[in-house]
Amino acid sequence: MEVANRLMVKGKSALETEQAAVRVLQSLFPPLLLVLYKALLAPIANGQLAAMMLARATAISCQWLMGSCSVNSVTLPDGKSWSSGVFVEKCKYLEESKCLGICINTCKLPTQTFFKDHMGVDLYMEPNFEDYSCQFVLLLIAVQLRGAASTS
């Protein structure tokens, strides 16, 4: 929480906070790994393989931060079910901060940006501010945005 609080320092805009959080996420990976993942794995099967792999890696490697989580199936707009979701039962990060701004600006938006820009996989996160759960839906946001644009 110390890092999150430092990211939310007074005078910083939401965008500056998001960009700083993305840099923190980038620093956790060897640079070549991100480049190769995005170039070689993300394009396979329209991102489905990369989304499945990221869901599993996230569920395994992020429990120290988020708490108990598991891979689950999500329904895509075309009606197909795909095991590219991660359900966080009770996010320790959100529960400890109890702050919508910290959740949105130092976790949700930066993580979505990081996955898309640096790993080549679309992600939509749905935090529940009542029970502190969070649903990650990988491979969905681009499809949703296209669908929303075509119905407006």
TrEMBL record:
It comes from the Eukaryota. Keywords: Isomerase. Residues 64-137 form the Beta-carotene isomerase D27-like C-terminal domain. One of its GO terms (molecular function) is iron ion binding. The keyword Lyase does not apply. InterPro entries: D27-like, D27-like_C. It comes from Zea mays (Maize). This is Beta-carotene isomerase D27 chloroplastic. The keyword Isomerase applies.
